[in-house]
UniProtKB/TrEMBL annotation:
Annotated CDD domains: TPP_IolD, TPP_PYR_POX_like
Classification of source organism: Bacteria, Pseudomonadati, Pseudomonadota, Betaproteobacteria, Burkholderiales
A GO BP annotation: inositol catabolic process
Stretch list, region Disordered: 625-660
Biased composition (Basic and acidic residues): 625-639
Keyword Transmembrane: no
Domain of life: Bacteria
Protein name: 3D-(3,5/4)-trihydroxycyclohexane-1,2-dione acylhydrolase (Decyclizing)
InterPro entries associated with the record: DHS-like_NAD/FAD-binding_dom (IPR029035), Myo_inos_IolD (IPR030817), THDP-binding (IPR029061), Thiamin_PyroP_enz_cen_dom (IPR012000), Thiamin_PyroP_enz_TPP-bd_dom (IPR012001), TPP-bd_CS (IPR000399), TPP_enz (IPR045229), TPP_enzyme_TPP-bd (IPR011766)
Domain Thiamine pyrophosphate enzyme central: 240-372
Length: 660
């Protein structure tokens, strides 16, 4: 899988490299192997750079003596970065890979016990989003002589189980290294998973602390610098032919662009196919930015958080070309949105290509799109359909302009669209150079609809796992990957409170972020969902929570951010926000701007039904009414799926937006 390259860049390596074997501890061998992996530079210059941008580490017993000492030896070839929370540093590593479109990545090392289990949430996030990260948690003693050691989990029925086994379900490859020689097979396997489009996801190598310190005679050739080859399947002609047959029958096709378009660097191939064949393009959360926001055939966000243009076209399409997407429920409107269309799934992973009963094309997105366009020589979408899509796209762009430039009413709190507009207007350059980072709450819905992404990578929203707490840590990873870009983290007060410590890391590393905190005093998104399901406002907004005699705290987020080393201020309105953002852009260190926002208001335009089960039995009339509406939606979905004529059973598109 690897092609050797000349080790000229490693002239300073000790002469032992040229011997037939070199005696190293397992930890030293692991670190040296990671440092030797190279990747072609993204600038096309022909240079190479390290595959691993560094290792985030929080040391403790179980990794400080073994891998910690090895990292110190190779700190110049493989930088070690200190963080403040294991989950957060793994988020940063994942975001680094996402910002590099999976062409570069990072590793993470922790102690045993809570350090290791803190990785589980981040591993699940990487697994869902198909993003590479190498997890290196310390583990218990293989010898078992000092058992039970501090923080050891003891299973009463399995003596071989440790806390790290919790990482197995959320790893694409898991191995426990119980002898130094096992690295000779485990590391190439790990690297294959990390660099294969079909397999990509988190890899866990559990490292027992006694094995980390064991020495073994490794082949010197194992550490020869290598140029990594990224793997993605080429299209199979029979599958392309089947897709062509389906497309030739279509009059109203729609392309759904998922994250695989970005990771395969297929934006140009996508734009060429869409323009040549008159096919409108809708974008998932992971795929937003695949086409420039002002491309005539970009009809915007799709699904539960989608634009009216994209959802109307998805409702009426007779063929959906789903490229590089998992087709999760927010994209498909809980499987109600494409009920009238034949789906062609183009994906490097057959598991994803087959979803929604799709006709599978298991292939790299860029190669598959180019192959389809080359062979669709005399075919175009119906001209009326293309014109209709362009008209809807233009109308939606005008709506976005109106929504993000609306004057703020006196004595009314702004809502997310007002803040998004202010952020985009604040750029002295084209705001398409900014990278916006977000993950959970109301903001991903508003950003999916309203953020104008002008180039691939400008939109960095983690919504596969919708993980509160990813935002600031993810922003740090994106900034480390793209230090020349302004990285703007947009985060609600709930997510900020859940995980904010990497503000201090960003200051320590000189990785400047602009963080905009929208304070609606609780979990506003779930509060709205709770009431949409008939529930009473309860335990979400501060005002609706159990409280002691002092009541709910009034949190000063700006003062908190300053205590972590950032510059920060609180602003009273959108005009003050725009002025503060200018100061933030001029600052050389992380800058936090906080603004109070309306917890109830969202953008009414767009959206689609999202299935959230409502109780069949309740003493509350509001819940019973919500249950009736729920059953109507479920029945409507079933009716659309069984309709003989697609247009006759099309939904009206006026369902609850369900922003969650």
């Amino acid at each position: 899988m690897n092609q050797r390259i000349a080790p000229g860049e490693y002239a300073s390596q000790e002469s032992a490299q040229h011997a037939s074997t070199v005696r190293l501890t397992a930890a030293q061998a692991l670190v040296r192997y990671l440092a030797a992996q190279r990747v072609a530079s993204e600038d096309g210059s022909g240079r190479t750079e390290p595959l691993f941008g560094g290792v985030f580490a929080i040391f403790g017993h179980g990794n400080v003596a073994g891998i910690g000492e090895a990292l110190y030896q190779h700190r110049h070839e493989l930088p070690t970065l200190r963080a403040h929370n294991e989950q957060a540093m793994a988020h940063s590593a994942i975001a680094y890979a996402k910002a590099h479109f999976r062409r570069r990545m990072m590793a993470v090392t922790t102690s045993i016990g809570p350090g290791a289990t803190n990785l589980v949430t981040a591993a699940a996030l990487a697994h869902v989003n198909r993003l590479p990260v190498l997890l290196l948690p310390g583990d218990i003693f293989v010898s078992r002589e000092p058992d039970p050691v501090l923080q050891q989990i003891e299973d009463l029925h399995d003596g071989g189980v440790s806390a790290n086994d919790a990482l197995k379900p959320v790893s694409r490859y898991f191995d426990r290294i119980v002898h130094p020689a096992q690295l000779l097979t485990a590391l190439p396997r790990a690297l294959r998973v990390l660099t294969d489009a079909a397999l990509c996801g988190p890899v866990t190598l559990a490292l027992p602390q006694d094995v980390q310190a064991m020495a073994w005679d490794y082949p010197a050739s194992f550490f020869t610098p290598r140029l990594v080859t990224f793997h993605a399947p080429a299209p199979i002609q029979t599958e392309i032919d089947a897709a062509l047959t389906q497309l030739h029958r279509a009059k109203r096709p729609l392309i759904v662009a998922g994250g695989g378009v970005l990771y395969s660097r297929a934006s140009h191939a996508l734009q060429t196919l869409a323009a040549s064949r008159g096919i409108p393009v809708a974008e998932t959360q992971a795929g937003k930015g695949s086409l420039a926001w002002d491309d005539p055939l970009n009809v915007g966000a799709l699904g539960v958080t989608g634009s009216p243009a994209a959802n109307e076209l998805a409702r009426d399409a007779d063929c959906v070309l789903a490229v590089g997407t998992r087709l999760q429920d927010f994209t498909t409107g809980s499987n109600s949105l494409f009920a009238n269309a034949h789906v062609i799934g183009v994906n490097a992973n057959a598991f994803d290509a087959l979803k929604h009963d799709g006709l599978a094309v298991r292939a790299d997105a860029r190669q598959a799109l180019a192959a389809l366009n080359d062979e669709l020589i005399n075919w175009r979408a119906d001209a009326n359909w293309t014109a209709h899509a362009q008209r809807l796209a233009n109308e939606w762009r005008a709506s976005v302009e109106r929504l993000t430039h609306a004057p703020q009413e006196r004595n009314c709190l702004p809502y997310d669209a007002d803040v998004i507009g202010a952020v985009q207007r604040s750029s002295s350059r084209s705001y398409t150079e900014d990278i916006v980072v977000c993950a959970a709450g109301t903001l991903p819905a508003e950003l999916h609809k309203l953020w104008r992404a002008g180039q691939p990578g400008a939109y960095h929203v983690e919504y596969g796992y919708s993980c509160m707490g990813y935002e600031i840590a993810g922003g740090l990873g994106a900034k480390l990957a793209r230090p020349d870009r302004e990285v703007i983290v947009m985060v609600g007060d709930g997510s900020y409170l859940m995980m904010n410590s990497e503000i201090a890391t960003s200051v320590m590393l000189g990785a400047k972020l602009i963080i905009v905190v929208l304070d609606n005093r609780g979990y506003g998104c779930i509060n709205r969902l709770q009431q949409a399901c008939g529930g009473a406002p309860f335990n979400n907004l501060f005002d609706d929570c159990a409280q002691g005699p002092l009541g709910a705290p009034r949190i000063d987020f700006a003062s908190h951010a300053r205590s972590l080393g950032a510059q920060a201020e609180h602003v009273a309105n959108v005009a003050e926000l725009e002025a503060a953002l200018q100061r933030a852009r001029a600052s050389s260190r992380t800058y936090v701007v906080c603004i109070d926002t309306d917890p109830a208001r969202t953008t009414e335009e767009g959206g689609w039904w999202w299935e959230v089960a409502v109780p069949e039995v309740s003493a509350r009339a509001a819940v019973r009414e919500a249950r009736e509406r729920y059953e109507e939606h479920v029945a409507e979905r079933g009716g659309r799926a069984q309709a003989a004529e697609p247009d006759e059973s099309a939904a009206d598109g006026d369902d609850e937006p369900g922003n969650a």
